[in-house]
Amino acid sequence: MIIGIPKETAAGETRIPFIPDSVKRLTDQGADVHIETGLGDSLGIKDSDYEAVGAKVSNDRAALLSSADLVLRLRKPALEEVSQLKKGAIHVSFLNPFTDNDLVDAFAANNITAISMEMIPRTTRAQKMDALSSQASLAGYAMVILGAERMNKILPMMMTPAGTISPARVFVLGAGVAGLQAIATAKRLGARVDAFDVRPDTKEQIESLGGKYLEIDLGETGETSGGYAKELTEEQKKLQIEGQKKAIAQSDLVITTAQAMGGLRPAPRLVTKDMVEGMQPGSVIIDLAIESGGNVEGAVPGEEIEVNGVKVVGLENMPGRVAMNATQMYSSNMHNLILEYWDKEEKIFKLDLEDDILGGCVITHSGEIINEMTLKERSK
Ligand code: NAD
């Protein structure tokens, strides 16, 4: 079984899918790993570092793609690359399977087994493979650091002979993996943090990190069996928007992380234009959900704009701002996935579709879309 790891091609992507330490874990098990030359360039990792742990380096991308039985990457492939893959190969990456129908169709039509990293179930056994979590937690950190840099104020309280500076106020919307890390980071930097999430359990989690939970009575809210927030009714959304107005107006930095299914479904629009305009000039708002439609009205994907003196940051790929750690974690998620199903005798990745983790994240197999959730989303 040849494991092929092509170089990432998306413009501005600083992360890479696999580091030499992860390659070693596979070659130690007898795996035949081939990487594309320059795989580690963006992080200063050399081809020779991969060769030192047993990888073969290829400068022929097309040959690499067409010979690999198992392809590992970070971002989904360009559509035209799917037909270059070996028929019957397994392809592992982020995929966006609910929105990129053409890509999913192409995987099925070309008889590729496509594994979606974002569909790995959020269970205890799968935690070590959970790339949504590993990337989200770094995103939470990176957003606060970026916000601190963009603000014209400091985060902590400072008492000086020239006077006392009060701590900056940070409001975090959505206290999932990214939001909790944002709260922890802002608290460590000395800010006063308020936060809100629709899942009732989050109150305690926010408070345990030193944040203040914003009480908004939305009536019954809850979470799905997968741990995700249930969608609010239109009435509840209005109540939420009203309830968070004051907290947002008072904040120097607003971090929004409220997604639907980790970004697989469109994000709820929770910060209206008049709420942005109601913030003090000089304050900053950063929208992590921008890649799935955005929480903030007027935020522009990939851009930083100013609305009445308020900086609205729609920059994408927050984990890419801390690319080394994001890569280490993603690479580790991937090698954990491969090794979980590695057959030591045959030296192959054994696809067990009855297994609860693989059963959840395999999207296409044997020429068909077999993932129930993906099929359900399509029929909507
Ligand atoms: P996510 O990215 O889908 O959403 C981020 C947060 O936004 C969530 O906390 C969600 O409740 C919140 N949100 C959604 N709509 C909102 C709204 N209208 N207003 C305010 N907040 C809103 O979720 P996530 O961060 O990927 O994870 C969500 C859940 O999954 C959490 O319960 C987390 O603990 C759980 N989880 C479990 C495991 C595991 O057990 N292995 C691993 C990771 C995450």
Summarize the structure.
The chain has 380 residues and is of the alpha/beta class.
Description:
- By secondary structure, the protein is α/β, with parallel strands linked by helices.
- It folds into two domains: about 1-130 and about 325-365, Rossmann fold; about 150-315, 3-Layer(aba) Sandwich (Rossmann fold), CATH 3.40.50.
- The protein has helices spanning about 20-25, 45-50, 60-65, 80, 100-110, 130-150, 175-190, 200-210, 235-250, 275, 325-340, 355-360, 370-380, and strands at about 1-5, 30-35, 55-60, 70, 90-95, 115, 160, 165, 170-175, 190-195, 210-215, 255, 285, 305, 310-315, 340-345, 350, 360-365, 370.
- It has an eight-stranded mixed β-sheet, with helices on both faces. A seven-stranded mixed β-sheet has the order 11-10-9-12-13-15-14, with helices on both faces.
- Helix 5 links the parallel strand 5 (about 90-95) and strand 6 (about 115).
- Helix 6 runs parallel beside helix 7 (about 175-190).
- The longest helix is centred in the middle third of the chain and has 20 residues, at about 130-150.
- The chain is globular, with a radius of gyration of 22 Å.
- The two termini are about 40 Å apart.
- It binds nicotinamide-adenine-dinucleotide (NAD).
- Nicotinamide-adenine-dinucleotide (NAD) binds near residues 130, 173, 227, 228 and 258.
